[in-house]
Amino acid sequence: MATATRALFMLFGATGDLAKRKLYPSIFNLYKKGYVDNDHFALIGTGRREWSDEKFREVILDSVSANADSEEQAKAFASHFYYMSHDVTNPEHYDALSDYANKLDQQYDIEGNRIFYISMAPNFFGTVAKNLKAHNCLSDNGGFNRLIIEKPFGRDYDTAEELNNALAKSFNENQVYRIDHYLGKEMVQNIIALRFGNPLIEGIWNNKYIDNIQVTLAEKLGVEERAGYYDGSGALRDMVQNHTMQMLTILAMEDPISFKDVDIRREKIRALRSMHVYTEDEARQNFVRGQYGANGDQRDYRHEDNVPNDSITETYVAGKVLFENKRWKNVPFYIRTGKMLTDKFTRIDVVFKKPLVDIFASAKGTESELNNNVLTLFVDPVNKIILRLNGKQAGQGMEMQPLDLTHTQSDEEKAATPEPYERLIHDAILGNATNFASWDEVSRAWEFADVIRHVWDTDKPDFPNYTPGSMGPDAADELLARDGRAWVFNSKK
Ligand code: NAD
């Protein structure tokens, strides 16, 4: 039986795209499942538009109806939503917000539990946090006050630190929930289950058995309508500093002493501390950037709408990351992410070492044809696990062939899998910060990314350098070839 939590949500950016597409459907699912207390919950949405409560509720109905069991259910849910037109830069507006929050708190008997969700452009994060505290929007009667904050968290170490200092004036670190929706994905969470629930896996999760680990976050589309934001960001900031680093950290961390958020965070931070931060020269050698060119009807990046035609923004990154500790000495973690690639998918390939001796080849006097064992975790678009072994070909003799052990999520499991936002909002309601990025993690990831960014802002790139529909520039293949390795997934194969 679900534990229902009383909560008053205050959502900044309630008329925005993210709210409509992800947040309302997620809160609705939590409501349906009984994770938010249906009698003791309300949401104040704010935005610049002059909407009435009725208009706001129409938008909510529009966003959740397809998933409702009945019209009454959707309407009952929407009746908990209240709208205030609000300019987040105007301090006076927060007094009205505070009064309204207190009124609804009483009306729904919410007992002071408040969740503030800032789903707005990042330059507003600090302003909102400051005014919330200064104008008594936080409850002070023993209920919880939690701040959920969208990405991006800064654009380099300095801006992230500035933002963090601004938040810290109003909220303690343990009240801040920094969203990284990759941490809400089923298979990313499954890494922890697989690693620490199976001695079979944990026993070989080290440099004695693992040759290298590859993490790929590929997108099939180009910048689409996000060009305005994306051109000022690029793939390193948009995908590597946050999502990719978080996945690497979970793959690399040591065993936490328990599944509690504080224990997991402690190990994630330790792993990030052991990550080698490159010098500029090392960054040049170990990171590759790319920008897509044209292909048939597909325009090159520089001719996409709202992109300057001399843009040097990277739409692709590949790199090698090293953890300098006993477990991972000499095991490279290769990462890559980009737009306009072969397909849309996220996968992790854990490549194991080959047997020291191939008895099958030595009996025949031939070269070894054994493949590396590979454990592949498919994160998107399907949740799937494949363990690739070497097995015997059917028939006489002893010819070897790859043998795949595959687990694919069933339809029932799929139906039971919440969307990342639903899972993360639920975690925040419960006060579980496991799947949110702490400041120590975010800041370390910026330290790492800043060196690469600085090199790329200084050196002139040779763009465009990859074809839409490929897996990126040749230099990304050379990065591994130099080490005598290759990407497990390679569209050229
Ligand atoms: P959006 O532009 O669609 O919405 C912005 C919201 O902010 C609107 O409700 C607008 O009224 C409000 N707003 C702007 N200026 C205001 C002001 N001065 N006072 C009061 N309200 C103001 O943005 P979005 O796409 O919903 O994104 C919101 C946040 O989520 C951003 O931080 C973005 O980076 C992040 N994000 C969005 C997506 C997505 O898919 N849309 C995905 C990941 C992260």
Describe what this molecule looks like in 3D:
This protein has 493 residues and is an alpha/beta fold. The protein has two domains: 146 residues, Rossmann fold (3-Layer(aba) Sandwich), CATH 3.40.50; 299 residues, Dihydrodipicolinate Reductase, domain 2 (2-Layer Sandwich). 38% of the residues lie in helices and 19% in strands. The chain has an eight-stranded mixed beta sheet with strand order 8-9-10-7-11-12-13-14, sandwiched between helices. α5 links the parallel β4 and β5. It is globular, with a radius of gyration of 25 Å. 42% of the residues are buried. The mean pLDDT is 96. The structure holds nicotinamide-adenine-dinucleotide (NAD). Nicotinamide-adenine-dinucleotide binds next to α1.
What is the CATH C-level name of the largest domain?
Alpha Beta
Number of helices: 17
Question: What's the main sheet like?
Answer: 8 strands, mixed
- Looking at CATH, which topology of the largest domain would you report? Dihydrodipicolinate Reductase, domain 2
Bound small-molecule species: nicotinamide-adenine-dinucleotide
Rounded to an integer in angstroms, the radius of gyration calculated over CA atoms is 25 Å
Note the beta-strand portion. Answer: 15-25%
Number of strands: 14
> Helix share of residues?
25-40%
Strands of the largest sheet, in order across it? 8-9-10-7-11-12-13-14
Shape: globular
Low-confidence stretches: none
Give the name of the CATH superfamily of the largest domain. Answer: Dihydrodipicolinate Reductase, domain 2
CATH architecture of the largest domain: 2-Layer Sandwich
